[in-house]
Amino acid sequence: MNSGILFGFLVYLALLAYIGWWANRYTKTEDQYFVGGRRVHVLAATLSDKASDFSGWLMLGYPGAAFSSGLGAFWAGIGCLFGTLADYVLIGPRLRIYAGKFRAITVPDYLEARLKDDTKLIRVLSALIIIIFMTAYVAAQFTAGGKTFAEGFGISDNTGILITVIILTAYVITGGFFAVVWTDVVQAMFMLLTLIIVPFLALSKIGGFDKATQIIGAADPAKLHPFGGATGIAAIVFAIGYASWIVGYLGQPHIVTRYMSVEDPRKLRRPGIFISGTWTILVLWGAFFAGFLGFAMYQAGILSVSDPEKVIPAMAVELMPGWLAGFVIAGIISAVMSTADSQLLVASSAIARDFYHKVLGKEVGKKQMVNISRLVVAAVALLGLWFALSGPKVIYQMVATAWGGLAVGFGPILTLSLWWKRATKEGAIVGMAYGLISEVIFEAKIYGWAFNPDAPGFFGTIGGWFNGIPVFFINFFVTLIVIIIVSLLTKPPEDVVKLHEEIFKKVPVEGTGKKSITETRAKSQVENVAEFVLAKGIA
After folding, report:
1. What's the distance, CA 59 to chain centroid?
2. Using CB atoms within 10 A of its CB, is residue 213 exposed (0-12), middle (13-18) or buried (19+)?
3. Taking Cα atoms as reference points, which of 41, 1, 12, 65 lies closest to residue 333?
4. What is the pLDDT of residue 297?
5. Is 260 within 8 Å of 90 (Cβ atoms)?
């Protein structure tokens, strides 16, 4: 084991331990444990959002896809960028306003209050969706951590998985949401620096971009084609297959919870979009080119890679002195932890708060609820450990499967409930039930994470039509249509419609008081609505 790599990583680990200790002082109640008391600064919330979003997929799965597929993998980056922007435009500000109105701590809290569901079915379905797919998502992060430790320290993947589980579970149990947010801020910076440094070092080592493309073109010309060599309809399907991540952003509880915690919904527009968009562009650029250039290094005999998804840790060990490689390994582990910690927290809230407390009606004190949640975090981590040790260990595929289940389960109803006053609890129940059942059946039993013609009979025909497109992309729109149809056939309570109209009624864009017309019009409509809501004391 390289002592320099170990030293760099231990420095990073000590920093995480300090943040967990510091955050524990601010984690005394359920509200603080799950949403930080709704007083998180927009900079911290935004960086935490993105660090939670990209996970080990960014540092291992996506570079591995670029290594294997070449230029065509860039479409995944485009899908992620526009998905990020869609979240901040369609979900963030409105969800924060509604969450403030209802004092909602979790996504199920919001959905139950917004749709006035007294049956508890929305909360039960939400808990099932979160438990099933979030546990699978956590397992993908554990696998990513295992691969990183294996490449950096010369141990087995399974040993690396165990180390990841121990480190990550410890600080989530200790610090709750504050620990998650502020470690995410540190981790976001580690990820950014790693993905800027590694591609430039690779370019220098291989002799420039032209040299790299020559090597790649000689090995496989299709890797230099934006559609992987496909043309016509096949090219469109190829692009959709990679860019389909965009719809998933609208339904990820571990991401949208960040919007519920921010101190001021207005800041989720211009500051939030600017910070998030800039960070996203930089890291996606770096992750793609790390994998792309890593393939050139591999073909040139400069780099030895046993698994495409280990290309960045392999490049760090090859291109950097040991202590600096240790920090890069830490940066990769940062990506893994920054998502898994949020997912563990959301999963624990689904079981402890949404099911045990709200559905079963078990009355416990706020401090007791925090302690129960910590026990649930440990239990979910153990289940995720089992999946990670026994699963396929292909991070891109594992993340796509879990991402898709959450996207279909929550994305359509979240979007509709925030923008359409006619959304009903019946539509939500039927749509979420369909999304849960169909994703489990299609992805676990019939197709896997993407459509293919190998399924039997009628399903094989459908798989041939959409061959290569992720199941969740098509299923998202099917679920959306199901919710709309059922909502049109039922009727929402009048007070629910009235509240929606009151909160999001169009605010006149005219100057009032000391503000000039120009100053008022300089704001977006959402900012004016948020200002109106805050002034009325709704949020």
Report:
1. 13
2. middle
3. 12
4. 95
5. no
The radius of gyration computed from the CA coordinates of the chain, to the nearest angstrom, equals 23
Q: Tally the residues of the chain.
A: 539
What pLDDT was estimated at residue 194? 85
Beta strands (DSSP E) in 396-476 are: none
Q: How big is the CA angle at 148 (ends 146 and 151), to the nearest 5 degrees?
A: 110
Q: How confident is residue 522, by pLDDT bands cut at 50, 70 and 90?
A: low
Judge contact between 238 and 17, C-beta under 8 A.
Answer: no
**CA dihedral sign, ordered 480, 486, 489, 492:** negative
Say if residues 129 and 410 touch (Cβ distance below 8 Å): yes
Dig out the tokens for 20 from the structure: 């967990």
Whole-angstrom distance, CA of residue 221 vs CA of residue 70: 9
Cβ atoms within 10 Å, residue 157:
19
Residue 311 contacts residue 294 (beta carbons within 8 Å): yes
Amino acid of residue 7: F
Question: What is the CB-side half-sphere exposure of residue 349 using CA atoms within 13 A?
Answer: 28
Q: Where do the domains of the chain lie, and which CATH numbers do they carry?
A: 3-21+42-393 (1.20.1730.10)
| CA distance readout (Å), 326 to 168, 266, 308, 311, 317 | 18, 39, 20, 15, 8
Q: For residue 381, give both structure tokens.
A: 């981590």
d(CA 366, CA 369): 5
Contact (Cβ atoms closer than 8 angstroms) between residue 311 and residue 305? yes
What is the spatial distance between Cα 112 and Cα 120, in angstroms, rounded to a whole number? 8
Residue among 413, 411, 478 nearest 441 (CA): 478
Contact present, 57 and 83 (Cβ < 8 Å): no
For the ranges 368-372, 405-409, 426-430, 450-454, the lowest mean pLDDT is seen at: 368-372
Which amino acid is residue 498, in one-letter code? K
Q: How many CA atoms lie within 13 A of 407 on its CB side?
A: 26
Q: What is the Cα–Cα distance from 21 to 26, expressed in whole angstroms? A: 10
List pLDDT tens digits, range 275-308: 888 889 999 999 999 999 999 999 999 998 889 9
Cα(448)–Cα(454) distance, integer angstroms: 11
Angle between helices 395-419 and 42-56 (to 10 degrees): 140
Closest CA to 205 of 116, 315, 308: 315
Tell me the C-alpha distance between 407 and 118, whole Å.
Answer: 24
